[in-house]
Amino acid sequence: MKSLCAIFLIFACCAVAAAQATDKPCPVGDCDCLHRKAEAARKLQHFRTAVEKYQALAVCDPNRKTWADQQVVAVFDEVEALRQQADKANKSAQTEKKRAEKALSDLRATLTDVVRLQMREADELIRLLRYDEALEKCLAAAKTKAGADLILPRVCEIAFVHTETNQFTRAARALDSFRIAY
Fold this sequence. Notes:
Elements: H1 2-23, H2 31-43, H3 47-60, H4 65-127, H5 131-142, H6 148-164, H7 168-181
């Protein structure tokens, strides 16, 4: 853990040193300093600073004006490319989000269909007075976390039958099992 903290501190110090190196003003007339700072800022993607340094370089050394202007245009091109890349990533993320939402919706619909099928089987078991098997079918369906509104009436019916036959513990166990499942 200590080595991880030490590495973090080293990186933080390097980042601060790099930021300070581009923040210190160049001596008056030191066009090479402006050039270095412009390139460093551009490399760090501090585009505003880079443009400012290129413009200052154009004023400092009129012979480099054309080159500095070209660099300013190149910085704007980089910014535009990054903006387009961000737009593309955003559109891709939106598409993936819609795809995931559709898949989730399809999954929920499928789970509900599975619960409906299991409830048909549970209904048949209830009709045959096989309440314990019907309850197991209901609890298995409850594990899908879908269709509680389809399962609860069957569980209540099973609990009612147990209550009518004075099997209160079994009725309570049926209702508790359903409650725990959801």
